[in-house]
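Below is how a single chain appears once it has passed through the pipeline. First comes the sequence as given, then the structure the pipeline wrote out for it. We keep one example in the README because the format questions we get most often are answered faster by looking than by reading.
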Amino acid sequence: MTMLYRLDAGAQAVAARFGITAGDDPWTGGHVAPGQFAPVITAGREFIAGPGGSRQPWRMVPRLWGVPPPPSAHDAARPVTSVRNVDSPFWVGNLRNPEFRCLVPATSFMEWGAGTDYEGRRLQHWFACAQQPVFAMAGVWKDSEVPGFALLTCPAKGLAKATGREVMPAILPAHPGAWATWLHGGWDRAQALLTPGPDAALVEVLR
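Resulting structure:
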C-alpha cells in the first residue's frame, strides 16, 4: 500500500498541467504522507451555490490524505488512505457519484520493497511515470469534519510488480478526455480507467 508520494511541482505548474487555475492554493511542492494536506482536482459542487445538474468547472483544492474509517474498522484511529475494493459499501456511493471523484496530482510514489537495506531499514522503491512528469492518480474524497481523499488502486504491473507489490495507485491516462471521464463520467466508463495503459509505464527513481 502506498504510504508516501511526491508532488515536486508548485500549484501554478500543476494547474497549467491540467488546464485550470491555481487560485490561492499554497502548495509549493514536496512529499505527501497520510494525514497531510495535498492539492486535488475536483469538479464537485462543494462551495458552489445554486441548483445542481450542470457541469462545474474543475478546480484545485486542498484535501487531507486519509478519511475516517467505517465504525466497524478494527483500528478506528487509523485513516483509510486507499481503495482496494470498489464494491465496498463504504465507497460505492462516493465512487458512483462523480462529484466525489478527484484527480490526485503526483510526480512519484513510494512502495515498500521486500527485505531491508544494510542499516536494517525497510527498502523503499520510488516510481515515476516515464512519459508524464506530473501524472494524475485516481482519487475519491469523502465529506467529513475535514474532507479527506483516498487513492484508487489497481493490480501492480511492470516495475512495481517486480518489487513484489500486489497493487499500486491507479494512474490515469495522460489526456484530458480520461481526466474528464473520471471527474464527470458514469461509473462503468470511469472504472474502465483503473487499468493503466502504456503511458503509465513506470521508471524507478532515487530519493
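The domain at 4-44+56-205 is CATH 3.90.1680.10 (hypothetical protein yedk fold).

See the next section for the split statistics.
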